[in-house]
Amino acid sequence: MAKISLWLFSLIAPFIKQILVVLGVGIVTYVGFDQILSAIQSSVVSMWAGLPADVWNVLALAGFVQAINIWLSALTTGLALLAVKKYTLMTS
Fold first, then answer.
1. How many CB atoms lie within 10 A of CB 33?
2. How many domains does the chain have?
3. What integer pLDDT is reported at residue 17 of this predicted model?
4. Residues 22-45 pLDDT 10s
5. What's the maximum distance between 2 C-alpha atoms anywhere in the chain?
6. 1 domain-assigned
């Protein structure tokens, strides 16, 4: 019975280790990206805050706010894919 449990543990241990490493990298990456994107978004909003209301309304109607959100989402996706690619190269 002890040999079977030792054998099962030796099979499962690498998977558990990999899952914990991936979760740790994911959490650290998410927190870091969240801080960076919040800073970028607040910078963009503060730069455009000095515009007159009419200009801001025209930009909003033209979809400028959505364009900024789409751009930030694309940046996040690109960085996440880069992190995944780099991680898979490290583990293989």
1. 16
2. 1
3. 77
4. 677 667 777 777 788 888 888 887
5. 77
6. no
